[in-house]
Amino acid sequence: MIMDKVNILGVNVDMVNISEAADKIVSFFEEDRLHSVYTPNSEIIMMAYRDAEFAELLNRADLLTADGIGVVYASKILRKPISERAAGYDIAIKVLEKLKDTEHKLFLLGGKPGIAEEAKRKLEEKYPGIRIVGTHNGYFKPEEESEIIDEINNSGADIVFVCLGAPAQEKWIDRNRDKLKAKVAMGIGGSLDVFAGKVERAPDFWCNMGLEWLYRLIKEPWRIGRMMALPKFGVTVLLKGRRYRENLNSQIKK
Ligand code: UDP
């Protein structure tokens, strides 16, 4: 599958929908190395816009999907439209549906103590046949990191859901990419909380209207500071996005 990318403020986002992203992830099992999957939203792309090292880290990913309506709109402004939002949680659900009929093993990393275990229980109920071979909470000290890597490697996991929140999870995956024996590591934020039934996802209506951010803001008003990244992102894409792309095109032509 050849995947086209759209350069959004320096971050090369794959133009894939949820189901294409899941197919791509399953194809990663055929190659014996770690593949990283991140789902940047507008806040993360703004972070990368201001931090070249972080932008490079994101661009090293094997799959970068558009999480959030802001990123989808940005792709439209840049005239390389992504067809739908491909959030980590939605991709994870599709991947779980595929995993349940295979031998591939999954490890869950992240969340407060007890969350990953509860997520494991709920997922095993919902996807009979799924092989979840280990869990670990996401509140550990740097000196515990190598022990956790050993635990993941010894579990024989082929895929790890890394749910430490952004940008910690992307940095964690990138930092450990040569140590992990799994074939796929996906940074998928608060998904374990949702799998564990501790946090509710916005109802479909809000998601379909592109208003999940508003739903989350009503439920978790303390997110307002983080959410201010969205209008800044929109303005920056409008002001710089096209110029950025034109510069890039002229560099390619030279
Ligand atoms: N988390 C964690 N370790 C930390 C900080 C956060 O495991 O040191 C978890 C937290 O419990 C939550 C997830 O990371 O489950 C972050 O969720 P959020 O919805 O904030 O994700 P984001 O929107 O940042 O992707």
Q: How many distinct folded domains?
A: 1
The fold-level CATH name is Rossmann fold
Order of helices and strands: EEHEHHEHHEHEHEHEHHHHH
Q: Give the helix/strand class.
A: alpha/beta
Name a few traits of the molecule.
six-stranded parallel sheet; two-stranded antiparallel sheet; alpha/beta; single chain; binds uridine-5'-diphosphate; Rossmann fold; 13 helices
Describe the protein in words:
With 254 residues, the chain is α/β, with parallel strands linked by helices. The chain has helices at residues 18-28, 42-50, 52-59, 69-77, 88-99, 115-126, 145-155, 168-175, 191-195, 204-208, 212-219, 224-227, 229-253; strands spanning 5-8, 11-14, 35-38, 63-64, 105-110, 131-136, 159-163, 184-187. A 6-stranded parallel beta sheet has the order 4-3-8-7-5-6, sandwiched between helices. α6 links the parallel β5 (105-110) and β6. α2 (42-50) crosses α3 (52-59) and α4 packs parallel to α13 (229-253). The radius of gyration is 18 Å and the shape is globular. The two termini are 29 Å apart. Uridine-5'-diphosphate binds at residues 110-112, 138-139, 163-166, 189-190, 192-193.
Please describe the topology of this protein.
Blueprint (H helix, E strand, L loop, with lengths): L4 E4 L2 E4 L3 H11 L6 E4 L3 H9 L1 H8 L3 E2 L4 H9 L10 H12 L5 E6 L4 H12 L4 E6 L8 H11 L3 E5 L4 H8 L8 E4 L3 H5 L8 H5 L3 H8 L4 H4 L1 H25 L1
Parallel strand pairs: 3-4, 3-8, 5-6, 5-7, 7-8
Antiparallel strand pairs: 1-2
Quick recap:
With 254 residues, the chain is of the alpha/beta class. The chain has helices at residues 18-28, 42-50, 52-59, 69-77, 88-99, 115-126, 145-155, 168-175, 191-195, 204-208, 212-219, 224-227, 229-253; strands spanning 5-8, 11-14, 35-38, 63-64, 105-110, 131-136, 159-163, 184-187.
